[in-house]
Amino acid sequence: MILVTGGAGYIGSHTLLSLADAGYESVTLDNLCYGHRAAVLKGHFVHADLADETALSHLFETFPIEAVIHFAAFCYVGESMEAPEKYFSNNLVNGLNLLNAMLNFGVDKIIFSSSCAVYGDPFEIPIPESHVKSPINPYGLSKHFFEEILASYEVAHGIKHVSLRYFNAAGADPQGRIGESHEPETHLIPLVLQTALGLRPEIQIFGTDYSTADGTCIRDYIHVCDLANAHVSALSYLLSGGQSTSLNLGTGKGHTVREVFEHCQQICQLPIPYREVGPRPGDPPELVASGDKAEEILNWSPHYTLTEIISTAWNWHQNQKF
Ligand code: UFG
User: Fold this and answer.
1) What is the pLDDT averaged over residues 100-121?
2) Annotated active-site positions, please?
3) Predicted pLDDT at 281
4) What average pLDDT does this structure show over 13-32?
5) Looking at the domain assignment, is residue 268 inside a domain?
6) At 49, which CATH number?
7) Cβ of 117 less than 6 Å from ligand 1
8) Of 135, 95, 130, nearest in space to 117 by CA
9) Which atom of ligand 1 has the smallest separation from the CA of 191?
10) Domain span at residue 50?
11) In the chain, how many domains are there?
12) Residue 282: per-residue pLDDT
């Protein structure tokens, strides 16, 4: 049985489907502060908060947990600049509760949701995992610190980990069962598609003077189902005795904001009002993963193209269930 914290969230809920397809049983722990109960289509569900140590112990007593996939965290970069305490309390202190419960119950394998935000403003593209970690916001710091905490827990207690550093997660389940539903929504692709549907008056393009081909930021967009499958590969790797490691999950291909916008227009075939505005503070000009290490260690590589990412997202937003 695999414990999935934050399994009602965007990446967590898609990972539950991949786990079930691979034959794993799961139990989700989620406080539903951002997640959706309707997104949990597989496995058991426990409505609880990682701050609640009693609930956590009860869960470990009830289910024979073999390994943990830890998604539960706050993930808004902008909010983390205004309320760092919120990010350090939830992403670090509550994460420690989870690690301590694992110690108490003899569970020694964890897959951690990390982020390309650990690299800050990179000086090398594509970014290798060995790149210096210098986060530029408390969200990225919380992910970097938790990776370091995992390293200390391995030395002291033998807990093995795989930290997965996601680049820009996007897209939705190709069968349309689940998809991205953040409140508030801050990510580019859902905002563009919601604008196409008339749910928003316009999309703002943040910054057109970056030193990129068309002046807008470059990101490495990766399909959420590719991310989900990488978690299953990382789990099999740890369960078969793999060593602790940190891996980028991206496609190795960057797309500018304008390219993404144009792809969306082609797929939607609808007018999408937009406005060019100044840059969003804290946005690095370019983030693109080197995916060599994940391919080598997990034998994993992404399959979905940007067009497929946007098409599956478009299908979801037109028929959104939650
Ligand atoms: N963008 C716009 N307009 C919008 C929203 C976004 O132009 O309304 C641009 C951003 O400036 C950026 C790109 O679209 O250049 C992608 O922005 P997202 O908000 O979709 O994603 P980010 O790259 O900011 O964030 C991602 C992850 C975070 C992670 C971060 C690391 O979602 O969890 O990368 O920098 F922390």
Assistant:
1) 98
2) 139
3) 87
4) 98
5) no
6) 3.40.50.720
7) yes
8) 135
9) 8
10) 2-170+222-249
11) 1
12) 84
